[in-house]
C-alpha cells in the first residue's frame, strides 16, 4: 500500500509540475511549494551540468543528505550507483537537449550511509521565459518491493538447492560420504563456516557426531568422548535465546550456560557493535522426528556475514534440518537393520517420509505411519488391504514405473502424481529399489515417497510469471512465439482454420506524451480487459509489444475473427478515460489473417522422402499477414478492422 500511495504521489507531482509549466507562474515560488507539499515523493532539481539546485525534505529522509550538503554538487558524485553513473549522465543530457520528460525507469541510488535504494524515477524539464532550464527528478522508493522480489528469488534458489541435495542424499550409498555431503550442504545454505551434526543415542556418550566441517581431527576425537545427552541440550534451549521455530542462539554473554569442555570457540574477530557475531557465540538448531521429539542437533558458528542470527537468516537452516532429519533417521536405521528387525520397524515408524513395500502384482506388504497418513488411510491395516495400483492417479504410470524398475533395479526421485483414499491427488518424488529372488525375478520393491505438492505449486507459479505480461496480465511475447506454432499444428491435425487478430491502439504515443506513461498504462490495462471479455475460453491473447496486442482464435475463419475484432473495437471505443479530469475516448485498429488446412491427403512418402510442415515459418507468415492488414487499417484512417485478402494454405514439403 505504501508503494501504491507513493506511485499516486508521483502522478500528482507530474500533474502539478505540468500546471506550473502551463501557467507560466513564478518558477521558484510555485515549484518550492509543490515539492515541499509532496511528502511521499523525493524531488531533486538539476541544472544542465547535473548540479543539484534544490533537494526537498522527502529526499533528505530517503537518502540522508540535507539540502545544504548536496546543493551545487553533481548527483553522480554521491548519489548514483557506480554501475548507473554513465547512464544517468546521458539521461540528463538527453532531457535538456530534447526538452522532453524521460520515461519511468528504475535506478539504484546510494544513501549517505552507503546503503542502496531502488527507486522508480523520471526527469521532467522545466523551461520558463527568462529563466534557466532545469530538470526535476521525482523518485519513488521501491526498495521494499525489490527486496521482496529478491527474497522470492532467493527462496526459489533455496528450493532448487534443497531438491538437488535431496536427490544426492537418496543416491549416496556410502554413509561417511553421505554425512560429509550433508555437512557441506549446511555450510552452503547457511551463514556459517563451521558445523557439527550430532545424533542422540541412549548409551554414553549419548550422542554420535555424524557430520562435521571446519573441525580438526584432534578436537573432533576429544568432543566424541564428552558425554552430551539430549537433556543437556534441552537446558541450553531453555536458557538461551530462542529464534526461529527450532533454534537457540547462545551469545558470548551467556556462554556460562554451556559445558565449556564441549565447546570449540571461533578464532576470527568481528566488530564489537550491536547486531554482529562474536567469536564466542553459538547457534544450535534442533532436528526433530515426526512426533516433534528432538533427535539431534546441528551446531554452527563462525558467521560468514559477521552478523548475529535472526528469524529470517536461520529459516533456511531450519528448513534443511527438517528435510534431513528423516534421511538421517533412515540411514541410521539401515545401519541397525542387520542386528535388530524390531528396531528397524520402530525407526521407520518415526521417519517423516512415507515408505511402503509392494509386489509387482500390486499387493501391499508393509507401510510406515507416515505413508498411511500421506495417502489418507485410517491405519496400516486399511492401507494394506487396498491395491498398489490404486495409489497412482493414472494406471498407465504403474506399468511404466514397473517396467523401468525391472530394467534398472532402482528408480530415484521419479516425479509422479499419486492418489489418496478420498480420490484427491498429490505430487510425489518416488525412489524404489527392487528385491529379487535367486532367479532374478522381482519379489517386491521398497519405495520411499516424498510429498512435493507445494514445490510443484511453486514451480507452476514461477512458470506462470515467466509467460505473463506484468502490466496487462495477458500472455507475453515469449509465450506467443512458443505457442503459436503449436496452435497451427493443432489446426493442421484437425484440418481447420486458425485466425489471428493484431490490434494497435491509435495515437497511443501522443496520449503518452501528453499525459505520461502512468496514464498510458491505464489504457493498456483497459484494452486487455476488453479483449479478455470478448473472446472465448479456448482463444488466447498476448501483449505483442508496446501498445500492440495479438489474439489467437483456433477453429475460427477470418470472417468470424473480424466479427470478434469489430466487437472489441466498439467496446473499447465506448470506454471513457479521464486524465487530468478530461474525458477522452480512444480507438484501435485491427488486422485479421487466417491459415486454413483443407481436407486433403498428405503426399505419400517414399522410403527416401518425407513430407513435413514448418510450423514456425507459417507462424511468422501469419503474423506478418495480420500486421500488414493492421497497417492497411491505419492507412485507411484508423478506428477500423481490415481482413487480409490472402489466406495461408500451407503445403507439405520435403525437409
Give structural notes.
By secondary structure, this protein is α+β, with helices and mostly antiparallel strands. The chain has four domains: 140 residues, PAS domain (Beta-Lactamase, 2-Layer Sandwich), CATH 3.30.450; 189 residues, 2-Layer Sandwich (Beta-Lactamase), CATH 3.30.450; 101 residues, Beta-Lactamase, CATH 3.30.450; 182 residues, Alpha-Beta Plaits (2-Layer Sandwich), CATH 3.30.70.270. Helices cover 42% and strands 24% of the residues. The chain has a six-stranded antiparallel beta sheet with strand order 7-6-11-10-9-8, sandwiched between helices. Strands 2-1-5-4-3 form a five-stranded antiparallel beta sheet. A hairpin with a 3-residue loop joins strand 8 and strand 9. The two termini are 57 Å apart.
Key terms for this structure?
alpha+beta, Beta-Lactamase, six-stranded antiparallel sheet, 20 helices, about 25% strand, disordered N terminus
Largest sheet: 6 strands, antiparallel
Tally of helical segments: 20
Distance between the termini: 57 Å
Q: Which term fits the overall shape?
A: flat
Map the helices and strands:
Elements: H1 2-23, H2 27-36, E1 42-46, E2 52-55, H3 57-63, H4 67-70, H5 85-98, E3 105-110, E4 116-126, E5 134-141, H6 143-171, H7 175-189, E6 192-200, E7 207-213, H8 217-224, H9 230-239, E8 241-243, E9 247-250, E10 282-288, E11 294-303, H10 311-336, H11 341-350, E12 354-358, E13 364-367, H12 369-374, H13 380-384, H14 395-408, E14 410-419, E15 425-436, E16 442-451, H15 453-466, H16 477-494, E17 497-505, H17 508-515, H18 517-533, E18 540-545, E19 548-554, H19 558-574, E20 588-596, H20 615-635, E21 641-648
Parallel strand pairs: 20-21
Antiparallel strand pairs: 1-2, 1-5, 3-4, 4-5, 6-7, 6-11, 8-9, 9-10, 10-11, 12-13, 12-16, 14-15, 15-16, 17-19, 17-20, 18-19
Helix pairs in contact: 1-2, 6-7, 6-10, 7-10, 10-11, 16-20, 17-18
Amino acid at each position: 500500500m505504501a508503494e501504491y500511495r507513493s506511485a499516486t504521489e508521483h502522478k500528482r507531482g507530474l500533474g502539478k509540475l505540468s500546471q506550473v509549466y502551463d501557467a507560466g507562474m513564478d518558477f521558484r515560488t510555485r515549484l518550492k511549494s509543490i515539492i515541499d507539499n509532496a511528502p511521499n515523493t523525493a524531488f531533486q532539481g538539476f541544472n544542465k551540468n547535473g548540479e543539484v539546485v534544490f533537494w526537498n525534505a522527502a529526499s533528505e529522509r530517503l537518502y540522508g543528505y540535507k539540502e545544504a550538503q548536496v546543493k551545487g554538487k553533481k548527483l553522480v558524485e554521491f548519489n548514483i550507483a557506480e554501475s548507473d553513473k554513465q547512464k544517468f549522465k546521458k539521461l540528463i543530457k538527453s532531457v535538456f537537449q530534447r526538452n522532453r520528460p524521460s520515461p519511468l525507469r528504475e535506478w539504484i541510488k546510494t544513501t549517505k550511509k552507503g546503503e542502496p535504494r531502488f527507486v522508480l524515477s523520471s526527469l521532467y524539464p522545466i523551461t520558463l521565459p527568462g529563466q534557466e532550464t532545469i530538470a526535476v527528478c521525482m523518485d519513488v522508493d521501491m526498495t521494499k518491493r525489490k527486496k521482496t522480489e529478491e527474497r522470492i528469488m532467493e527462496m526459489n534458489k533455496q528450493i532448487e538447492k534443497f531438491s538437488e541435495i535431496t536427490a544426492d542424499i537418496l543416491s549416496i550409498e556410502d554413509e561417511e560420504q553421505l554425512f560429509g555431503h550433508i555437512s557441506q550442504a549446511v555450510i552452503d545454505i547457511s551463514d556459517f563456516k563451521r558445523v557439527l551434526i550430532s545424533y542422540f543415542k541412549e548409551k554414553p556418550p549419548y550422542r554420535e557426531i555424524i557430520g562435521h566441517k571446519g573441525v580438526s581431527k584432534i578436537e573432533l576425537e576429544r568432543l566424541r568422548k564428552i558425554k552430551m545427552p539430549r537433556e543437556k541440550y534441552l537446558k541450553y534451549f531453555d536458557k538461551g535465546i530462542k529464534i526461529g521455530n527450532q533454534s537457540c542462539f547462545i551469545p558470548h554473554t551467556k556462554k556460562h550456560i554451556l559445558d565449556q569442555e564441549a565447546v570449540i570457540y571461533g578464532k576470527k574477530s568481528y566488530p564489537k557493535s550491536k547486531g554482529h557475531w562474536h567469536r564466542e557465540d553459538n547457534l544450535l538448531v534442533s532436528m526433530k522426528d515426526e512426533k516433534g521429539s528432538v533427535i539431534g542437533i546441528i551446531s554452527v558458528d563462525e558467521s560468514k556475514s559477521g552478523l548475529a542470527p535472526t528469524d529470517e537468516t536461520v529459516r533456511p537452516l531450519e528448513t534443511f534440518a527438517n528435510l534431513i532429519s528423516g534421511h538421517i533417521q533412515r540411514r541410521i536405521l539401515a545401519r541397525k537393520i542387520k542386528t535388530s528387525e524390531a528396531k528397524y520397524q520402530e525407526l521407520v515408524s518415526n521417519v517423516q517420509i512415507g515408505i511402503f513395500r509392494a509386489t509387482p502384482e500390486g499387493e501391499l506388504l508393509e507401510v510406515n505411519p507416515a505413508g498411511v497418513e500421506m495417502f489418507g488411510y485410517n491405519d496400516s491395516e486399511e492401507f494394506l488391504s487396498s491395491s498398489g495400483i490404486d495409489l497412482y492417479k493414472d494406471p498407465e504410470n504403474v506399468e511404466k514405473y514397473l517396467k523401468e524398475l525391472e530394467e534398472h533395479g532402482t528408480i530415484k526421485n521419479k516425479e509422479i502424481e499419486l492418489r489418496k483414499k478420498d480420490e484427491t491427488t498429490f505430487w510425489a518424488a518416488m525412489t524404489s529399489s527392487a528385491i529379487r529372488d535367486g532367479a532374478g525375478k522381482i519379489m517386491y520393491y521398497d519405495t520411499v515417497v516424498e510429498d512435493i505438492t507445494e514445490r510443484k505449486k511453486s514451480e507452476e507459479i514461477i512458470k506462470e510469471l515467466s509467460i505473463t505480461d506484468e502490466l496487462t496480465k495477458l500472455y507475453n511475447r515469449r509465450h506467443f512465439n512458443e505457442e503459436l506454432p503449436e496452435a497451427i499444428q493443432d489446426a493442421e491435425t484437425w484440418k481447420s482454420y486458425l485466425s489471428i487478430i493484431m490490434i494497435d491502439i491509435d495515437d497511443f504515443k501522443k496520449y503518452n506524451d501528453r499525459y505520461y506513461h502512468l496514464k498510458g498504462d491505464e489504457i493498456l490495462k483497459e484494452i486487455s480487459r476488453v479483449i479478455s471479455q470478448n473472446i472465448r475460453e479456448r482463444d488466447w491473447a498476448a501483449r505483442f509489444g508496446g501498445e500492440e496486442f495479438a489474439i489467437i482464435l483456433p477453429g475460427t475463419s477470418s470472417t468470424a475473427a473480424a466479427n470478434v475484432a469489430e466487437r472489441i473495437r466498439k467496446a473499447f471505443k465506448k470506454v471513457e478515460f479521464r486524465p487530468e479530469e478530461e474525458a477522452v475516448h480512444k480507438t484501435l485498429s485491427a488486422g485479421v489473417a487466417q491459415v486454413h488446412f483443407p481436407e486433403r491427403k498428405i503426399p505419400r512418402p517414399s522410403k527416401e522422402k518425407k513430407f513435413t510442415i514448418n510450423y514456425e515459418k507459417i507462424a511468422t507468415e501469419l503474423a506478418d499477414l495480420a500486421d500488414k492488414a493492421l497497417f492497411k487499417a491505419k492507412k485507411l484512417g484508423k478506428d477500423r478492422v481490415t481482413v487480409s485478402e490472402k489466406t495461408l494454405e500451407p503445403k507439405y514439403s520435403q525437409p
